[in-house]
Amino acid sequence: MANTTFNGPVRSQNGFQDISINSSTGAVTTNATFGAATSVASLSATGNVTADSGTAPTAGGMAAFLVSSTANFGIFVGSGAPTISAAQGSLYLRTDGSSTSTRLYVNTTGSTTWTNVTTAA
Q1: 18: which residues sit within 8 A by CB, 6+ positions away?
Q2: Which residues, in sequence order, are bridge partners of residue 117?
C-alpha cells in the first residue's frame, strides 16, 4: 500500500490504528490505537506530557498516572483525604493539603488505607 499524506484534518468515527506487518509471516501487529481511549505500547516525549488536563481532581481521589501491569498502581490526585482504592505503594497528591502532613500519602494495604508522608515546609 502506498503512503498517503493529508493536508488538513483527518476524521474517523471509530479511531485510528498504527500497525506493522511482519514481512515474513504477514502477521499484523497493532502498535497504537488512537481514539476516545488512546493507547500506545511505548511513549517517548521531549517536553511535557499532559493528561486529563480538562478534568478537575475529585474528592477522595482519581487516577492520574497508572504504571505497570499491577492493577491500580500509580499516582492518584484529589481533594481531601484519600478514599480511593489503589495498589500498595501508590502515591496520592492532595490538591488542598495545607500542612506538612496533608500533602502526600502512600497506600499501605492495596485497598483504601493511606498513610500520610510528612514533608518539609
Answers
A1: 30, 31, 32, 33, 34
A2: 104
CA–CA dist 63, 81 (Å, integer): 14
> 92 with 83: CB under 8 angstroms?
no
Sequential DSSP letters for 69-107:
SSTT-EEEEEBSS--S---TT-EEEETT--STTSSEEEE
How buried is 110 (Cβ within 10 angstroms: 0-12 exposed, 13-18 middle, 19+ buried)? middle
Beta-carbon contacts of residue 71 (< 8 Å; ≥ 6 apart): 87
**Tens of pLDDT, residues 59-95:** 999 888 888 889 999 999 999 999 999 999 999 999 9
Whether residue 30 has pLDDT greater than 70 = yes
Burial of 6 (0-12, 13-18, 19+ CB in 10 A): exposed
Give the integer Cα–Cα distance in Å for 67 and 95. Answer: 21
**pTM score of the predicted model:** 0.66
User: In the prediction, which pLDDT does 1 show?
Assistant: 57
